[in-house]
Amino acid sequence: MNRRYRKTIIAGNWKMNKTLTETKAFAEEFKPILGRPKWCDIVLCVPAVNLHSAIRMFKDSRVSIGAETCHYEENGAFTGEVSAQMLKDIGVKYVIIGHSERRQYYNETDFTVNKKVISALNAGLRPIVCVGESLEQRELGVTMDLITYQVKCALANIPIEKVRHVVFAYEPIWAIGTGKTATAEEAQEVCEGIRTVIRKLYGARVARAVTIQYGGSMNAKNAAELLAQPDIDGGLIGGASLKPDQFMQIINAANQD
Predict the structure, then answer these.
(1) More reliable by pLDDT, 127 or 138
(2) Taking burial as the number of CB atoms within 10 A of a residue's CB, which of 197, 221, 246, 251 is the most buried?
(3) Would the pLDDT of 177 be above 90?
(4) 165 counts as catalytic
């Protein structure tokens, strides 16, 4: 982490978990132990049906609410979809874009990711853009080639003044939900590579200001070591964010001196 230049952000991605009743129970358990984190911002990205209520539940806390995806159009005949402007209007602050599960199961491409990033920024949301490689791609030695391509696509046609509002999350696909995780050195290498791509596109000052998270099975045990790396500015947390005590341990790791 480098707090001098950029925010540390710990974000939970609940995926398709927790009913409204369970979300309320989480809030009741989590808020009393949260306190006022000194160094990091906290985000909970919850299922769409829980967004409005979650915003109300956490309105008096340091927790911002995020969505797990959005559509790239402002409105139209897109049954079942939700636009970035709709999210902004109810008080959502962040939105995850391009998670590997969205790419795998719902045919999201690097080009639709770019359109969603543009839409989110235009609506005033902060997109958390996920990039990452499969195990096969890592073993072939093309990790940074792929990550570079994904980052460049995500930032296509994004003006320089908006880039610092984009958050990147490095999510090695082989480490999501598998219990495996990249070593701190492997995660740092890729996060540093992401910053290098941004620097080549927009310059050093902008690159220094962009928050880059690690999202491959970060948990209470490995968070401190990962977050001690200079280019890892937070985490996009899956399973551990569903349990208040575990999520709090990761937040505490991000508040290390």
Answers:
(1) 127
(2) 251
(3) no
(4) no
